[in-house]
Write a structure and sequence with these properties.
five-stranded antiparallel beta sheet, rod-shaped, alpha/beta, 23% strand, five-stranded parallel beta sheet, 19 helices
Length: 658
């Protein structure tokens, strides 16, 4: 029995109260009490403190036992209530018990009261503890609900069948419902079929493993957007280790996924840039050496051709050699175009006009079994060289022709295009936005295998049989397009075909920017007795060029060392009319030699030749003193023509200095 019972007694008769207290003392109850007989007093004491038991008379002048029982029932049902009365009958007793009293005792039969008090106090304590636990549980539930509702993650509890038992506010917002609406629904009610089936698979996996699992999921928001989530599924069990449900906590990782994708794309872009830079450096070196070799072959071929009789087979053989040299030179130029782009002069041009001019050329390389369709929008202007645009079109068209094996439809479109959302380049992996012109070539060919998409812009990569292609076509596209600050996108067309989209920065039409074509007239003035200083570190080039020029009446000083050439020039300053030198030489570069010679004799003419120079363009060479600039391998008749042009230009003679 609990000690120090707190009794609240409703009794208006002092005699009856004394009898009650005497009985409790005789039964060794340890207690404290308050006695009232009005409603107001009763309500006040109930609010002021806790009570273990209420003993109430049934009939009182101002306040009845039934009324007291009603007050108790409103907010204090956990306090046991025993009705005590001298007049209570069976009907009244039943009424009291129905109203909520735990027992009733007749005043003339107090012998049963001690037992009733002990029983109800003990029961009341149990009820009190139960209520306390329930209150604590409600507090914990409220706290837990508050935590999960304010969690940035999606939290839900589902049955093995996918029926929702609980969901936090963030999850409900995802589903476009309230918490109450979500509970009781299934995953198939809230998600599309494929997503719901995937969630059920994860629920079953967590149940079978009986341990948490972490999975990556795509969930559709009510606004129609898919977001990426990292979800943890785990079992919830009760005290008997029986399954209550499967809890899922899902964290939105869309931003992290976007950052990771961006990082991977940037890494890929960096690797591509480094690869292209390395190839460009290698290409430049190869181009220089290869052009020197071609220059030597070309020079001696020209000598053989000059020595042969007209109509002799020898000249035909040499002509074939020159064709091969030309093809090799074109291949080197393609390599240079890929590595550094075309350094030709760029102007404002109408791509619409260029395409119109190129259509006839396209028709000539397409078999009649391929239908050529086109849709060209006017006023598509870019900064470029016409040859660059033609080369882009021809390379893509020939690539499409080969993909169709001679049968199909090639569609060429040109239009202005503006994008505010970033698009990504298929060759450099960079992003781009803004105003562009979009050149598209679509074929109905076999398409490009997925595993090849990342390689198609690599130099010499090809899936064609040996001898069917060099693998440089799309590599050239990469070089040309990015030289013009453009981008390329490649898309597969289902069920078959490929679409190449070239994006070049758009400019406003410039009606007065028509490209001016200057035709130079070379005067056939005799060059006999003119003296040339020929300088090249390739002895074969020097030998063949010297012989050729001398055959046409020129006096030639030849050197393979630029330092020796400068000393020879100083010794023959009044004899040398024209300096012809290579740009890339050991010790002194060609342009340095030109400037040194012109400081000694400003009237000397100069022709600068180069197999490849990354740091010196034609404009820079002319600005620094060269009179003419040409790329190797150069046809010796053209070199002779350049000499004639210079000596016939009536350039004013200036005083020389020693």
């Amino acid at each position: 029995m609990k000690k120090n019972l707190r009794l609240l007694i409703l009794e208006d008769m002092p005699v009856d109260l004394d009898r009650l207290l005497l009985l409790l003392n005789r039964e060794n109850f340890c207690f404290e009490y308050q006695c009232v007989h009005t409603r107001n007093e009763f309500e006040c004491l109930l609010m002021e403190q806790e009570w273990d038991l209420i003993l109430s008379d049934y009939v009182m002048p101002q306040f009845s036992g039934i009324e007291a029982l009603e007050v108790r029932n409103e907010n204090y049902r956990h306090i046991p209530f025993i009705m005590v009365s001298g007049t209570i009958g069976e009907t009244v007793a039943v009424e009291c018990m129905k109203a909520g009293a735990q027992d009733y005792i007749l005043k003339d039969n107090y012998i049963r009261l001690p037992h009733a008090i002990r029983r109800e106090v003990e029961r009341g304590e149990k009820v009190r503890q139960q209520l306390l636990l329930e209150e604590q549980l409600k507090t914990q539930q409220k706290l837990l609900q508050g935590i999960i509702d304010h969690s940035p993650a999606l939290v839900s509890v589902k049955t093995l069948e996918g029926k929702f038992l609980l969901a936090n506010k963030r999850f409900s917002l995802l589903a476009g419902s309230s918490n109450e609406q979500v509970v009781g629904q299934t995953v198939f009610d809230l998600f599309e079929q494929k997503t719901a089936e995937h969630i059920l698979e994860n629920i079953n996996m967590a149940y079978k493993r009986q341990e948490p699992i972490n999975v990556r999921e795509q969930l559709l928001h009510v606004d129609g957007r898919y977001n990426a989530y990292l979800s943890t599924y785990f079992c919830l069990k009760d005290s008997k280790n029986e399954l209550i449900g499967i809890c899922t906590i899902s964290t939105n990782v869309t931003d992290q996924v976007d950052l990771e994708e961006t990082r991977l794309r940037l890494e890929k872009q960096l690797v591509t840039a480094q690869k292209m830079e390395a190839i460009a450096l290698l290409t430049g070196g190869v181009a220089h050496d290869f052009n020197n070799i071609l220059s030597s072959i070309n020079g001696f071929s020209s000598l053989i051709y000059e020595a042969g009789d007209k109509g002799s087979p020898t000249r035909d053989y040499v002509a074939q050699i020159k064709v091969s040299v030309q093809r090799a030179r074109d291949l080197v130029n393609e390599l240079l175009t890929f590595s550094k782009g075309d350094n030709s002069k760029v102007t404002s041009i109408s791509v619409s006009d260029i395409i119109s001019q190129t259509l006839n050329m396209l028709a000539s390389v397409m078999p009649s079994s391929i239908r050529l369709e086109h849709e060209i929008e006017d006023s598509c202007w870019v900064k470029a060289n016409p040859v660059q645009i033609q080369q882009i079109i021809m390379n893509l068209a020939i690539n499409a022709r080969d993909a169709m094996s001679g049968v199909g439809v090639l569609n060429l479109t040109l239009k202005r295009y503006k994008t505010d959302e970033p698009r990504f380049c298929s060759s450099c992996y960079g992003s781009f936005v803004g105003d562009y012109i979009c050149l598209q070539i679509i074929d109905t060919g076999s398409g490009i295998a997925h595993e090849h998409l990342g390689k198609i812009f690599n130099p010499f990569f090809t899936t064609k049989a040996a001898g069917k292609g060099t693998g440089m076509g799309l590599a050239i596209i990469h070089g040309l397009v990015h030289t013009l600050d453009g981008h390329v996108q490649v898309e597969q067309i289902i069920p078959m075909g490929t679409k190449f989209s070239v994006f070049l920065p758009s400019i406003q039409a410039e009606v007065d920017s028509i490209d001016k074509i200057r035709a130079d007239t070379y005067v056939a003035e005799s060059v006999k007795n003119k003296t040339v200083l020929l300088v090249d570190d390739e002895s074969a080039i020097v030998k063949s060029t010297k012989i050729y020029l001398e055959l046409h009446g020129l006096n030639v000083f030849a050197c393979v060392n630029p330092t020796d050439a400068l000393n020879l020039f100083r010794s023959n300053v009044n004899k040398v009319d024209i300096l012809i030198c290579d740009q890339t030489m050991p010790g002194i570069t060609g342009i340095e030699l030109v400037k040194a010679c012109k400081r000694i004799n400003p009237s000397v003419y100069s022709i600068l030749l180069t197999g490849y120079s990354e740091f010196l363009s034609e404009e820079q060479a002319l600005a620094q003193g060269a009179d003419l600039y040409a790329l190797k391998p150069i046809e010796l008749p053209l070199l002779l023509q350049m000499i004639r042009y210079l000596v016939s230009s009536k350039k004013p003679q200036l005083e020389t200095q020693n």
